Amino acid sequence: MMTIPFFLLTALPLFLSAAAAKHGAPQDLVQSSCLHASYPRLCLRTLSLYSGPANTPRDLAQAAVKVSLSRAQKASNYLKTRVKGKSKKERVALSDCVEQIAESVDELSSTLGELKHLRGETFEFQLSNAQTWVSAALTNEDTCLDGFEGVDGKVKSDVKRKMTNVAKVTSNALYMINRLDDSRGRHQLNP
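The structure assignment produced for this chain is given below.
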């Protein structure tokens, strides 16, 4: 019979639990960060599934913007290729919406670039830019839906479903960006 030294029996569980805790740390950050988001369950679901690194609030804000950007791009492609307005009012509203979502994609892309290069001496300015662009993206998404006022039917319901989804993840992204100012002193901004 093989005997295992007492040291290994006591040290191995400690080592394994430390490794497990370190592995779970990003998940804990996601859970604690999503707790007060506008759409906490959606936040938890989208950011838990995110495959990139999310070890700091900055990583999480970038991940949230990437999710929003991806959803906005998918919505844009969907609206351009799969939705056809029957009436003139539907076609005009759809065209305006495609334009609005394209602006949202640009603003979210700019936000992502700004978040990737946050620096101490320009942090407040860069954070303000990111907040402004994500807020503008949210406004564009709402404006898109406003164009369908007085329109009923499948086109409106398809657009509303897509844009509501994009708006929710964008709202969560704005929440994560707003949290960066609070976490600035607790986490390193520059990798």
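Interim note for the steering committee: Residues 6-24, 185-191 have pLDDT under 50 and may be disordered. Helices lie at 6-34, 40-48, 57-81, 88-116, 123-146, 154-183.
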